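Late entry, thymidine-5'-phosphate complex.
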Amino acid sequence: MGRKGYYLVFEGPDGSGKTTQSKNTLEYLKELGLKEKEDFIYLREPGGTKIGEQVRMALLDPENADMDVRTESLLYNASRSQSTKQIVMPAVDAGKLVVADRSYISTIAYQAVGLGMPIDQVEQTIMFAIYNFTPDSVYLFDLLPEVGLQRTGKDKDRIEQRDTVYHHRVRNGYLLYARANKDMFRIFDSTPSIEEVWEQVKLDLDNRILEEWFERSGR
Ligand code: TMP
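Prediction complete; structure with ligand written out below:
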């Protein structure tokens, strides 16, 4: 049986504007008369649950410089497992729209490709963590790392502090995964202004995502 709700994910390198665009989406949903919690849910990764937010602090703390790469990968998945079971699956089952800032695809880009870990092993761990519950659609906001890292400012977390070569690998990881999973992805060039990118996002929400979700959920 198909899903009643819809799981939409905002992805992209640091400073790509995905968080701003996901917040714009929430505002737009409210303008349409839809209600947060009742109709749609917002989630960020890592985090989104009490346990996940604790895991997030450990992951992003620059003092944890000696964190092992597999520990890092498993912690992202630990946060994700909790939010998938506690938030995403019940919301989609109840016919709601889940708007998520990041997902397992970040782990493919930042850990598997970014840190050069065996992609098949990372993917297996991910699927275990997310109960195989993958997004319906992923918006990828693509941007050159040099531009993105300037936008994030001086106060950088443990991952943002990594060098530009790493962030180029992350970007390539995203693009490779998107190319291999074309049906799931919609890529936006994030170089133009936030307003210009938002026009593109809004168009796709109207023409595709909301229509599909309304049909599924009977709204
Ligand atoms: P945020 O800045 O979008 O809140 O994400 C926090 C940082 O965590 C960001 O630098 C990307 C990184 N990250 C990973 O490395 N792997 C993951 O699986 C996720 C979800 C985020």
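The mean pLDDT is 97. Will revisit in the morning.
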